[in-house]
Design brief:
The protein has helices at 15-26, 33-43, 46-56, 63-73, 92-101, 114-122, 157-180, 193-205; strands spanning 4-8, 30-32, 84-86, 104-111, 124-126, 133-135, 184-188. With 207 residues, the chain is of the alpha/beta class. The protein binds adenosine-5'-diphosphate (2 copies).
């Protein structure tokens, strides 16, 4: 399969957690717009400066900024046989722009209800050295690295509410949009990380 795969779902659904598994199975490099924006922010580039206020408020960064970022990323040689998008597209406008740039072969939607999302996001921690995503209760990090774990600035209860609101208004309709195109595969994301991983694996193996 030469097209790209989209990992779709609300913030905190477990997209990043499952992305490495899918990348391993398919050989497609993960492309996370959230990670790209956070790198830009910490490097203080023009893009980072532009995106900062939106990210900290839990609002979507403007479509044209994101589309430009993806357009450049897809020019890299490792993207020639498709990539694994995580957190992109998030609006119908982004999806329409993506259609002009590359082929999407499947959209895997990880479904988790809002009340579980809040707990997942508030307990999320990241290891800045390896990029590994942990959770204080659901995926505890080894004790040796506790001191270096970081919590994202936007992973607060207040910001989560705003992100979920944006998800329901701006992103969720995109699931139906992909459904109408026969590309949507829906996965129950409420089980454990391993259980969701098993569902994701069998979905990817049918592609
Ligand atoms: P999560 O997976 O927890 O929702 P991400 O790391 O994907 O978070 O995104 C963090 C923030 O970066 C978002 O709240 C938003 O401000 C911005 N962002 C990431 N991807 C996009 C996108 N495709 N369109 C607009 N904004 C985005
Ligand atoms: P996303 O990329 O969709 O924003 P993450 O993969 O970062 O989501 O996961 C959000 C948080 O929830 C992380 O702390 C992660 O360890 C945890 N998590 C992921 N999948 C599950 C799961 N199936 N059950 C419980 N916690 C999970």
């Amino acid at each position: 399969m030469t097209g790209s795969i989209v990992l779709f779902g609300p913030p905190g659904a477990g997209k990043g957690t499952q992305a490495s598994l899918i990348a391993e199975i398919t050989g497609k490099p993960p492309v996370s717009t959230g990670d790209m924006l956070r790198s830009a922010l910490s490097e203080g580039t023009e893009l980072g400066v532009e995106a900062k206020a939106f990210m900290e408020a839990g609002k979507l960064v403007p479509d044209e900024v994101i589309i430009g970022l993806i357009r450049e990323r897809l020019k890299e040689p490792d993207a020639s046989k498709g990539v694994l998008f995580d957190g992109f597209p998030r609006t119908i406008l982004q999806a329409e722009a993506l259609e002009e740039i590359t082929e999407v072969s499947a959209v895997i939607s990880i479904e988790v209800p809002d009340d579980e999302i809040v707990e997942r996001i508030i307990g999320r921690r990241m290891d800045p050295v390896t990029g590994e995503i942990y959770h204080v209760s659901f995926k505890p990090a080894p004790i040796e690295i506790h001191d270096r774990l970081v919590q994202r600035k936007d992973d607060t209860e207040e910001t989560v509410r705003s992100r979920l609101d944006g998800y329901h208004k701006q992103t969720k309709p995109l699931g139906n949009w992909y459904g109408e195109r026969g590309l949507l595969i829906t996965i129950d994301g409420t089980g454990s990380i391993l259980e969701v991983g098993a569902l994701v694996t069998s979905a990817v193996n049918t592609l």
